[in-house]
Amino acid sequence: MIRLLAPVGAFSLLACSPAAIGEDDAPAAEAPQLEGQYLFVANKRGNSLSKIDLASGEEVKRVDSCANPHELAVSPDGQHVALACYGETSVEIFATADLSRVNRLDLGPDARPHGIHWGGALVATAEGRQSIFVIESPLRATSQMREYKTGKRGSHMVAVAPDNETAWTVDMGSGTVTRLDLQTFGPARSVEIGTEPEGIDLSPDGETLWVSARGSDKAFKLDPETLEVQGEIPTGRFPLRLAIRPQGDVAVTSNLADGSLTVIDLATAGAIRTIAVSSPEQAEARIQVTILWSDDGERIYAAETQSDTVAEIDYVSGKVLRRLKTGEGGDGMAILE
Predict the structure, then answer these.
(1) In the prediction, which pLDDT does 143 show?
(2) Which InterPro entries match (predicted)?
């Protein structure tokens, strides 16, 4: 199975994996069986793309990429990974097998693509153009691209409905969430949500849209059609990202300022627990950003951009199993299972 973007205790040293690092000589936690699973990481300071074998914890391949890559997404068939080149104007596509570059899609001047999703088509935000791009057949040399204006500043992250007919962006500069109809390309609809909304995810059943606003220290439950706010949930400090468990029961926010995750029960729209990935004193040294669930919902991966690590967290116990080394400034992630 493929888990995309789009689109997390105590610390321990995993003795069986030389690529895993821990702290304080804590007892080693038992690693899950992850044969054949790979983690792909966009390294924004290193201008590179990493492939990590999750069974061993080792980085098996790293290649140069475009400047300042942030988010990435895996193709539906698992054969390719697309990288949003935030420091440039393009989306780059690599083969997942050997990380060979197979295509480069230029989105035009000032594009600064960031959020990305690969479903029926490839959808990417173009923050500098206040738009999203819908790219059909992205592997072809002459891909069909349509630009859809959000008209909002800082259209940063994107969520796409399972039927690929609707997309939503969080627009940090405008403080809005925007709904876009990918069938009609009619006028976009936007509403103001909190202060600096950035994290976004759609529930697996498509019934609720969830947004985290980093300047408000809150998560918001929205109606995906009307964008009406149906609930507000306090989180930890600076909730940069929000990711819903594939099973659809909970979401977690990545609280950058205090190194924690807030776990939200989606049925009750309430916070039910906090997972400490690092202490508040360590948070600045790690800079926890992107979060990603394993497909079985048993593990959470949190990119720690400043320390060039990815924390692998057991969801049930909340313990950090190991820290995986990646390139400089690891940020966007995807798992191929």
Answers:
(1) 85
(2) Host-pathogen_enzymatic-act, Lactonase_7-beta_prop, N2O_reductase_N, WD40/YVTN_repeat-like_dom_sf
